[in-house]
């Protein structure tokens, strides 16, 4: 089974990044809705405990983090390219800054009192409390900390004016005439602001940015069909993991293939996933794990932003 299955929920900014990359590539995919807060039993049956959104599943191979999902989609369909030839480092580097810096500013701006009131309008108090408690736990134990709203608001003009100038002078997209992963990484953070009426005015002074956002949004989400979580788990159980990549490297940390390890994010959502190390590449770490519901799966992590530890 080689169909693309995205585990996500509609309001997730990083899921919007993944959905637009699927649309950019013109790919068909299956949509599995997951809860925005823990517990996420169907998702963690596949990931072994990784809880961040979204996750891409292809048979019994599970891809965590949109940085790695982008690379897997590039393997799925070469064109149009998320990492354009000759601009691979620039595209990846800009995307990384957006995912880490611009996104944290967008979160802080959304979490102003008026932004929170708009986000949770009409929801029961216990739902709001559960969400806040979940996000507090998400950011505990990692290197990332919530950016103070006052700091985010103060720095916002610098970040947005740079984008505005770039887009005024250098083509329709951040690296020129063609979109890349850098555009989708910047877009999803700004989409999080634009989708909240209480704070969307933060984008008003930047017409070139807003026009660019429309160009990115026009790629759409591709063609997708709904799928239940149980069906996705059954697909994993009935599939075998794909052959391992051929471009393994010597382990920078001295780990050995077949060793029992844990892998976890460094910044936030640092829940450890236990398994057997089966591959280390320049950009990717793969561990094998057995789950009573999903069977044997290979869980894929990006190297940057994640750590490996021996069990």
TrEMBL record:
Residue ranges annotated for the GST C-terminal domain, each copy included: 117-242
Domain GST N-terminal: 2-81
Domain of life according to the entry: Bacteria
One MF term in the entry's GO annotations: transferase activity
Entry keyword Nucleotide-binding: no
UniProt cross-references to Pfam families, sorted A to Z: GST_C, GST_N_3
InterPro entries tied to this protein: Glutathione-S-Trfase_C-like, Glutathione-S-Trfase_C_sf, Glutathione_S-Trfase_N, GST_C, Thioredoxin-like_sf
Keyword rRNA-binding: no
Keywords: Transferase
SUPFAM superfamilies according to UniProt: GST C-terminal domain-like (SSF47616), Thioredoxin-like (SSF52833)
This protein's name: Glutathione S-transferase
Native organism: Halopseudomonas oceani
